[in-house]
Amino acid sequence: MFDRHKYNVSDPLHRTYKGRCYRSKAEMIRASQLDLLKRCGEIKQWVYEPKFALGCPENIYIPDFQVELADGTIIIEEVKGVETPMFKKNKRLWRVYGLYPLHILKAKSGKMHGWNRTVLLPEGATDAN
User: Fold this and answer.
1) Is the pTM of this model over 0.90?
2) What confidence tens digit (pLDDT) does each residue in 71-127 have?
3) pLDDT digits 0-9 by tens, 8-36
4) Within a domain: residue 127?
């Protein structure tokens, strides 16, 4: 019998793109969208799972994507289905120590082809992009 993950994560076959198994199907879909945006020239590049120390070396936050837009602006994207207690802690730390806007993406009405986007700006930031 197949064990269900407590957050209902898809089978690895359904969340693999270009040989990489993503943590969720939504992350995999976003990675494919970022590839398309890069080919269209809307973004320069994207990085999967960059690491950020938030306040001290022990507080490491690994968001899903770091995206460099065509104009050179950097944004961080976090694809979310469920906001875990750890993510809520990281959001609080990001407000204080984050370097870039954090874009939290949630699938619209359970669909994977559209996103509800919330932008969390670090303290002192003025531009949400």
Assistant:
1) no
2) 999 999 999 988 899 999 999 999 999 999 999 999 887 555 689 999 999 986 656
3) 556 677 788 898 999 888 899 999 999 99
4) no
Tokens encoding 8: 């209902």
| Domain range enclosing 48 | 12-120
Neighbours of 86 (CB within 10 A): 9
Where are the extended beta strands (E) located within 1-129? 16-17, 20-21, 43-48, 52-53, 60-61, 65-69, 74-79, 102-107, 115-120
Q: What does the block give as tokens for 94?
A: 């990001």
Query: Does any domain span residue 114?
Result: yes
Count: domains in the chain: 1
Q: Is 89 part of a structural domain of the chain?
A: yes
Which residue, 21, 10, 17, 42, is CA-closest to 31?
17
